[in-house]
Amino acid sequence: MLRALLSGLGWRKGIWGCAFSSWQPHQPPAGLSATEVVSHWTVVFEEKGIPEARESSEYIVAHVLGAKTFQSLRPALRTQPLTPWQLQCIQELSSYRLQRMPVQYILGEWDFQGLNLKMAPPVFIPRPETEELVEWVLEEVTQGPRVVGAEGGPLILEVGCGSGAISLSLLSRLPQSRVTAVDKGEAAICLTHENAQRLRLQDRIQIVPFDVTLVESWAHLLPWGPVDLVVSNPPYVFHRDMENLAPEILRYEDPVALDGGEEGMDIITHILALAPQLLKDSGSIFLEVDPRHPELVGSWLQSQPDLPLNLVAVRRDFRGR
């Protein structure tokens, strides 16, 4: 059965290395502290119309100083003068932000569900809304009827794994679970492999290049048998809405991971149509979708009377979408 739909598209190789030059635009004067440099770049970003100007500046400065967040820096580090090398590195990274590169790509890493994941363009950047999807899956697994695979944990299939954020989060929170993660993008497959190894979760995940839209056998994707859960944050943006996405998305992220076709349903319907071949009888599907999709999915399911799926629940994300 179709268990859940979660709506929301919020924010969707790190640039580390400093190219030195005698002068660059917006370069702050020497001798500034971290706090002063944050203020300097915040003003520059605001003047150039960069979204989340202060947050961007704080993340970049903190990264150069070896911290994840500016707030986690020791007070002494915030007030002491930065070295010329540090200032130059901040200048270099900030120049990418001025080109509207997402902070996640600039830093080359981002936290998701408490896991530090490598980020690299053009692989889709996981959003906070997708963390809510993971929490909902975990809630259903832990509070609902127990789903058990051959080795005691749920068997999970993720369609469109991207960076591996969803799969690896579920593996880390469900110690006996196993995951098959598929994506048609080579960059996504490579990044999921790398993140699985970074987190030492590679023994419980099978990562497979696969295009869900092609008519192929799914049998080789199910080495442990039918799965308990199918989870996906599929491409669901309506094609006509693509041009309205932020420059951070349009310039850097893979449009294939975003564009869901005329009504944003192209990949969603492929997943639903394949579900009977993938799921156990009591299995569930969790999808992140556009706020307009629950009604469209319901109508589509009514047009497929032979498909043994039911729309069970819909949740809004923290943005109310």
TrEMBL record:
- Reaction catalysed by this chain? L-glutaminyl-[peptide chain release factor] + S-adenosyl-L-methionine = N(5)-methyl-L-glutaminyl-[peptide chain release factor] + S-adenosyl-L-homocysteine + H(+)
Which top EC class applies here?
A: transferase
Please report the stretch or stretches of sequence annotated as the Methyltransferase small domain.
Answer: 156-247
Q: Which InterPro entries match?
A: DNA_methylase_N6_adenine_CS, HemK-like, N5-glutamine_MTase, PrmC_N, SAM-dependent_MTases_sf, Small_mtfrase_dom
Q: Which GO terms describe its biological process?
A: methylation
* A GO MF label: peptide chain release factor N(5)-glutamine methyltransferase activity
Q: Which domain of life is it from?
A: Eukaryota
EC number(s): the record gives: 2.1.1.297
**PROSITE patterns according to UniProt:** N6_MTASE
Keyword annotations for this protein? Methyltransferase, S-adenosyl-L-methionine, Transferase
Q: Where is the Release factor glutamine methyltransferase N-terminal domain?
A: 36-108
Q: Name one Pfam family in it.
A: PrmC_N
Q: Which PANTHER family match?
A: HEMK METHYLTRANSFERASE, MTRF1L RELEASE FACTOR GLUTAMINE METHYLTRANSFERASE
Q: What is this protein called?
A: peptide chain release factor N(5)-glutamine methyltransferase
Organism this protein belongs to: Bos taurus
